[in-house]
Design brief:
Number of domains: 1
Shape: globular
Helix content: 40-55%
CATH superfamily: Luciferase-like domain
Number of helices: 12
Number of strands: 12
Structural class: alpha/beta
CATH topology: TIM Barrel
Strand content: 15-25%
Distance between the termini: 11 Å
CATH class: Alpha Beta
Amino acid sequence: MGLQFGIFDHIEPVPGERLGKIYADRLKLLEAYDSAGFYAYHLAEHHTPAMHSLAPSQNVFLAAASQRTKRLRLAPCVYVLPLHHPLRLIEEICMLDHLSDGRLEVGVGRGGVLEAYFWGSDYEVEANYQRFKEVLDVVKTGLSSEQLSYKGSVFCFEDLPMRLRPVQAPYPPMWYMRNVETAAVDGMNSIIVGNLDSFEANVLRFRELWSEHHGEGRTLQGTEPKIGLVNHIVLAPTDDEAVALAGPAWKEYVWNLETPRRLEAERRGLQDLHKVSTRRPAGVPDREADRTRYQVRERSEEERRRRAAPGGIGGDGSGAGFSVIAGTPESVRTYMDEYLATGANYFVCSFQWGGLKHDEAQRSIDLFVERVMPHYSSG
């Protein structure tokens, strides 16, 4: 089975670069992804005081991207639904689906309660989750209906005409990040983080639950359900050179993701809110698969060596659990062989992160496209 390839991105600060140039350079990378045959570009949503996302309005950036690409699908991943009004989101999804000629895909999620606090939204865990569920219900209903009627505890609408309609019926393909059970039960594609051992169990979980809830069929849009793992990548002519670049970039990436929000919470005396920011709502399934139910076979010592992330960077749970692979194309292909053995059908790359410069990311992309992708692409 071949793989399809996607891109995950935060658009972080680049030391010494002005914001306009960061945007311009990133759009050039999207043109490269488009030409190389990547399936989709997944762009995260984060807001101040976080500083690891310079595109807090994904739709603005993706509107620009829609005019610079022809095949690459554009996928907010995720819309932090509790921070959005559902009517505006419905309208902007329709606009983007038309601007991209039907290339939009929609990722959804709850986001963090600390960010909701700074946004002035419901930041209590259960209230935030209720808001998420209602926004999702309204968006799905509004995108697939001529008129919107909805009665919830947060939003109520009665026979409201939906003047804009998406290109894709009943609505663009949907994604859920970090929890394959939620994704599979709700008929969404999934992207998660972690290592190959935890990922393989979650691939089994995703497939089994998809079959249980949707049979052997496809998504509502007629595509094969996708599951993939995010990999932050640095490629270079030698392993040592790749690790020398990736090590400092990873430290900066972790700092960008974790420190600014924590410092702002401490400055305002919100340490307790910061501590509970990862608490999960009641009834939400665990992110990790039950390893007694979803068992993967024991690997030999050689197989464990091959499936370890090249470069040996990260893997300690920092950086929101994302992983790093750094090495030559040959080293990465060893890892990719093991990735393919998990049964996954989607491989998610991140090429510019931390303090990596545009030309450093471009070199990794070139090496990946020329010397890695052809061995695994489903075409």
